[in-house]
Amino acid sequence: MPNTPTIQRDTLTPELFLQLYRSVGWEAPGIDQVRTALANTAATFTAMLNDEPVGMVRLIGDGGMSFYIKDFAVVPSAQSQGVGHALLTELERYVRQSIAPGWAVSLELISSQGAIGFYERHGFETRPNKWDGPGMFKMVRAQYACCGVHFFHGLCI
Fold it and tell me: Residue 54 in contact with residue 7, Cβ under 8 Å?
């Protein structure tokens, strides 16, 4: 019988975040950006298998109406071993315990193409559907500081 993953809450370090993030082939942000993100995260969950970190997920949200699942990653060698299920189960338990009795909140995410079935098996609905349009995404980049003038195509002018 395979080992059952254990889930740790709020123990994810920037260094471990970057290790797990890169393990699934994602281009990682810088460590200072990760530190800021983790400091402003509602909760983090780290999966351990045989005392090794094998997965993570961050939860961000307003605590009242909406939560967002971010940076859900399981190292390839631990995929299909219940790690993602354990992380998502613990995350949902945390959300239920964090909200007031009788409240319902939305739990949202953007799925990678290969994980759609996983999320559907866990009760998530795809978009668009008859009442919602597709999820949307936009990357916003900081402006460059440049000689106190303007920055155009990589040049200060």
Answer: no
Q: Which amino acid belongs to residue 104?
A: A
Which helix (H) or strand (E) element contains residue 8? strand 6-9
What global pTM score does this model have?
A: 0.88
The Cα–Cα gap between 11 and 44 comes to 7
Retrieve residue 55's tokens.
């997965």
- Tell me if 66 sits within 8 A of 106, measured CB to CB: yes
Q: Summarize pLDDT for 59-88 with one digit per residue, the tens.
A: 999 999 999 999 999 999 999 999 999 999
- Residues 6 or more apart whose CB falls under 8 angstroms from that of 126 comprise 116, 120
With b meaning 16 or more CB within 10 Å and e meaning fewer, what string describes 14-43? beebbebbebeeeeeeeeeebeebbeebbb
Task: Please count the residues of the chain.
Answer: 157
CA 54 remoteness from chain centre: 14
Confidence of residue 143 (pLDDT cuts 50, 70, 90): confident
Sorted by sequence, the CB contacts under 8 Å of residue 13 that are 6+ apart come out as 38
